[in-house]
Amino acid sequence: MSLMDYKASGVDIDAGNEVVRRIRELARSTFTPGVLSEIGSFGGLFRPDLSSLADPVLVSSADGVGTKLKVAFRTGRHDTVGIDLVNHCVNDILVQGATPLFFLDYLATGRLLPEVAVDVVAGLATACCENGCALIGGETAEMPGFYADGEYDLAGFIVGLVDRTRLVDGSGIRPGDRLIGLPSTGLHTNGYSLARHIIFDTLGLTPDATPDGLDGSVSDVLLRPHRSYLRVVEPVLSHAAGTIKGMAHITGGGLTDNLPRVLPAGTAAEIDRGTWTPPPVFSFLQDRGALSDAEAFRTFNMGVGMVVVCAAEATDALCSRFEQAGETGAVVIGTVTTGDGEVRYISGQ
Known about the structure:
Blueprint: H1 13-28, E1 56-64, H2 68-75, H3 81-94, E2 99-109, H4 114-131, E3 134-142, E4 152-163, E5 178-183, H5 192-202, H6 218-222, H7 230-239, E6 246-249, H8 254-258, E7 267-272, H9 280-288, H10 293-299, E8 304-310, H11 315-324, E9 331-338, E10 343-346
Parallel strand pairs: 2-3, 7-10
Antiparallel strand pairs: 1-4, 2-4, 5-8, 5-9, 6-8, 7-9
Helix pairs in contact: 1-4, 3-4, 7-11
């Protein structure tokens, strides 16, 4: 009987070590003054600066990229999914008023390809730098027989910080308040199972196809990164404390399911669909997939990636502050009403 080793069973420890070596500098490029450990330690160390906070609160979240990864596999483009992951997680804690401190990732694959892993981590590092968030560690797991060759899964974990006096929890939302929508860049990271079915299975399109109705190739449109709203929301939170009553990150479930997550009991939302123009990908998918309005608005973000709630009298000033922060697409899309948490859509302006 010949001797066996771990590599013969499908796990290449040397390849894993090469990945760690190549991503170490990427991770270091994201380090902030609070980082006390190196990549490769058993645990990541971070010392937050709490000097300016009266009552500091940690806010955490975890998420994945979902089946958008299937588009990355199909196109061989892996440098944007890390951006998606970080920005999604940043937005999830931003809606409670928190700014990010540090991030960790989990990359699991069947057979580790160093160049793919490096592309993924490069995306993570890019987004961490853009959001002022340190990538302090993670896990790369090679599991042959569990994932198909060429495929992987990606998850992320974020921790942020907010002063308790500045928590945004939606408790002050009242009927009559306004809903301000901030535009998305496209599908972000949700609705891809349906989008892929329509584009690849039903229409038979290839990733490099440029069909009428899309503002780019299939791969470019589907791989547009999930947008982070930190840079336009943080200045407003800092300089107009209390103006924002609540925020909703529009992810899986669309406006229909995500807005109710921040609405207090006894309230509902009325959305005027005529107040904004969704990016072309949404009308393309709805028309070619024969989707009802209800299905589309519960599957996709439909061009609104974040909703901010404020008092009616604060609306103009808040929109001006968003514009000063670089957000020119902020628009009032609806109103808080009385009700049981439902979202109602109207067509007139």
